[in-house]
Amino acid sequence: MKATKIHFLSYFCFAIAVTLFFAGCAVNPYAITNRSYKTQAKEYAKIIGQIPPATAGEIPDKKSWVGTTNFNLRKPNYVIIHHTAQNSAEQTLKTFTLPRTQVSAHYLIGKDGKVYHMLNDYLRAWQAGNSRWGSNTDINSNSIGIELDNNGFVPFTEPQINSLLLLLATLKKAYNIPTANFIGHADIAPTRKNDPSKYFPWKTLAEHGFGNWYDPILDTIPSNFNALQTMRIIGYDTRDSTAALVAFKRHFTPQDSTRLMTDSARMILNSLVKKY
Q: Is 143 helix (H, G, I), strand (E, B) or coil?
């Protein structure tokens, strides 16, 4: 009888342990990836804490190390906005937590307005890829990537945009990000990307101080106006001038999907360049 009771208690305890384990997984399905994140963060902390740092080339010995007191963390200077091109926030979270995808972002905002924070703002996400803005060719290293749950073919939801505006206000204040430096993935990678789509409300963002916008009353175009040069001044990579123009129009004149430089586009460019 005693052996039976012991067997029953052992089975009962095992059943409780299994139940608690799966209950924990149900509460947080990303418990495993969260542990992986912490492990990687600790490894980077060890690297940063090395004295002297293990840099390439000749490494000075500890006697020649002089630690300066004047330093801080690198800070983000751009915010890059994306749409996920997937069908749900859950699908994107899975994509960004699979090592084989080699893609990530700092934030994801669901259609319901829920904000998922996926990476410390000071760490480098893999979100911009092969991109360029002005002379900056490594945008991942100084930007924050924000993904919006949207497949690219439908308007963005009001809760989603409201949450985005609140997040952008926090980031702008925390890192003193210039107004002009809130841009889209297609702006920095016009030959590869089209996000956020033509449905994204750039004008609304600009009205809140996130990104530049042109004046409602446009001036006459100067006789010596060079549209391509103006696009370069703003930041666009114009090596493929058609792709750059399409990206510019998607951002500032989404109702015009043509690949031609129009007088309207020139007037808008002329207004915008005065803000840079």
A: strand
CA separation (Å) from 89 to 95, 97, 133, 186, 201? 10, 12, 28, 21, 20
222 and 207 both lie in a single domain: no
- Inter-residue contact 101 to 140 (CB < 8 Å): no
Which residues are annotated as catalytic?
A: 147
Q: Quick one: pLDDT band at residue 26, thresholds 50, 70, 90?
A: low
> Cα 189 to the chain's mean position, in Å?
13
The closest of 161, 93, 104 to 128, measured between CA atoms, is 104
**CA atoms of 98 and 200, how far apart (whole Å):** 28
Q: What is the average pLDDT across 204-219?
A: 97
Kindly state whether residue 62 falls inside one of the protein's structural domains.
Answer: no
Number of Cβ within 10 Å of residue 12's Cβ equals 10
Mean pLDDT of 269-273: 97
Q: Which residues contact 87 (CB under 8 A, 6 or more apart)?
A: 151
Cβ-defined contacts of 161-169 (< 8 Å, 24+): 161/201, 161/204, 162/113, 163/109, 163/113, 163/114, 163/115, 164/81, 164/109, 164/205, 165/204, 165/205, 165/208, 165/210, 167/107, 167/109, 167/115, 168/79, 168/205, 168/208, 168/210, 169/208, 169/209
Q: Which residues in 205-237 are b (16+ Cβ under 10 Å) and which e?
A: bbeeebbbbbeeeeeeeeeeeebeebbbebbbb
Structural domain of 167? 73-212
Residue 268 shares a structural domain with residue 203 = no
Q: Identify the CATH number of the domain in which residue 79 sits.
A: 3.40.80.10
Number of structural domains (the chain) is 2
Which one-letter DSSP state was computed for residue 99? G
